[in-house]
Design brief:
Blueprint: H1 2-10, H2 20-48, H3 53-75, E1 89-91, H4 96-106, H5 108-127, H6 138-161, H7 172-191, H8 200-214, H9 243-272, H10 278-297, E2 303-305, H11 307-316, H12 321-336, H13 338-344, H14 349-374, H15 378-395, H16 406-412, H17 416-430
Antiparallel strand pairs: 1-2
Length: 446
């Protein structure tokens, strides 16, 4: 009984010893939570850039390998690369808009070259992070985490409805599948005992997938022409170095860095009940940058920390690095054995949405908890209220940015995290340290 208890407790420890058989389900749960979102940016950008099916399939394969390797480096740092925290890496949605613009305007080679240079710049900034991370106070991190959660709620809702651009979006079928998955997640979480309770997302995804097969909406047609094994292609596109493309991508890398700061803070706060250290935050950003540069060598888009998985950590409190590393290895295997990846890709969006809607809500709550730990001083309330109001409000009406150059619109118009971060930074620098309202001294005698 003692050994069993230790194994159960180890799931909630960074370096607890967890048997492989128990680690795999937790690792698989993390991969299923982000798998579709990991390959979706590649599909969108490849389509916009008019790449053929073979090229797109090759990039999807590389994306899975790069995401898996990036996660392993994040979990088990090499030199200054990696935080050592339970953070899962994947292809970033943040770059989709600007990547489509660059790819269609200057060509896919210019996009690859810009990612290579931009990634190296972000990685170098991370090495010197101790000189600039000081300006990011805890209330700024709390605002960024909260904005990440709010920004993902629409993504979760879109998945619940069947996925962006789905011809049957919002159909009864998608409502049924999303509801079955969500209810399974809630009910399992109520009745399961011990560490099994934290597998609610995996169980819900399996139940939802079975329901989807019964309803005949799982498409296996993409499996017939997929090879069993294939190695990723190095330099499938010749990098071209266009200054405008490099500047645009580098600016988005800075935005991505702010999201990584928030994700790192959220994982430490929700999973470990402490603040992230400066070394951990710098290591997270370094992986973002340098591994993104490696990603470009395989023709892929940049990678970043995945907020979906931050939400999963917040919901389950499972932080064991080995357990999550098994998921990273599954991701690498999905890239080397494309048939495995193609099978995972048959998971319907509505099934995924049934789980992610709860996970993304957990990120919002983590942000609120971080704010409460900062204290509800007038200064903190001003920073959080105004940064969230401007960030969430302005980006919900992107036409408000129409007077600005295209480059500014690409960075800020639909990225509430970037606007929240910039606003919070400015307010933190200009507001006086003591803003509390003091009552005037009352006269002792009338």
């Amino acid at each position: 009984m003692a050994n069993s208890a230790n194994n159960n407790d180890a799931i909630y420890q960074l370096d607890g010893k967890v048997p492989v058989g128990k680690a795999i389900p937790f690792g698989l749960q993390h991969i299923l939570a982000m798998f579709v979102a990991n390959i979706a940016p590649i599909i969108i950008v490849a389509s916009a850039c008019k790449l053929d099916k073979m090229q797109t399939a090759m990039l999807i394969q590389s994306a899975m390998v790069v995401a898996g390797l990036g996660t392993l480096v994040q979990l088990y740092p090499i030199w200054r690369l990696g935080s050592g925290l339970p953070i899962v890496m994947g292809i970033s949605f943040t770059f989709v808009s600007v990547a489509c613009f660059i790819g269609t305007t200057y060509g896919y080679g210019a996009l690859v070259g810009a990612v290579l240079v931009g990634g190296l710049i972000e990685g170098l900034l991370a090495i010197f992070a101790k000189y600039w991370l000081k300006i990011i106070s805890p209330i700024i991190s709390a605002c960024v985490v909260t904005s990440i959660g709010f920004s993902l709620l629409g993504v979760g809702a879109a998945s619940f409805g069947g996925g962006f651009g789905a011809p049957n979006f919002g159909s009864a079928t998608n409502w049924i599948l999303g509801t079955i998955t969500l209810l399974t997640c809630i009910i399992y979480n109520i009745f399961a005992k011990g560490f099994y309770k934290q597998l609610s997302v995996l169980v819900a995804l399996i139940v939802g997938y079975i329901a989807a097969m019964i309803m005949g909406v799982v498409d296996f047609s993409g499996l017939k022409d997929v090879p069993f094994i294939a190695l990723p292609t190095i330099m499938p596109f010749k990098p071209e170095f266009n200054l405008s493309a490099i500047i645009a991508i580098t600016l988005i890398f800075l935005v991505s860095a702010t999201e990584t700061v928030g994700d790192t803070s959220a994982v430490a706060a929700s999973g470990l009940n402490r603040s992230a250290t400066q070394k951990e935050t710098a290591g997270s950003i370094a992986v973002d940058g340098f591994v993104s540069a490696v990603s470009s060598i395989f023709g892929c888009l940049p990678i970043t920390s995945f907020s979906q998985n931050v939400g999963l950590v917040a919901m389950t409190h499972v932080v064991n690095r080995f357990a999550i590393a098994t998921g990273a290895l599954i991701m690498v295997a999905a890239g080397v054995f494309p048939i495995f990846g193609a099978l995972l890709a048959t998971l319907p969006e509505a099934v995924l949405g049934g789980c992610t809607i709860m996970m993304f809500g957990s990120i919002v709550i983590s942000g609120f908890q971080m704010m409460s730990k900062c204290g509800y001083t007038q200064r903190n309330m001003t920073i959080s209220a105004l940064s969230l109001a401007i960030g969430l409000g302005f980006t919900s009406m992107p036409k408000i940015f129409d007077i600005f150059p295209q480059l500014v619109k690409n960075v800020f118009a639909e990225n509430c995290v970037a606007v929240v971060f910039l606003t919070a930074i400015i307010l933190n620098l200009i507001l006086p340290e003591n803003m509390e309202v003091f009552e005037p001294e009352q006269e002792e005698h009338k």
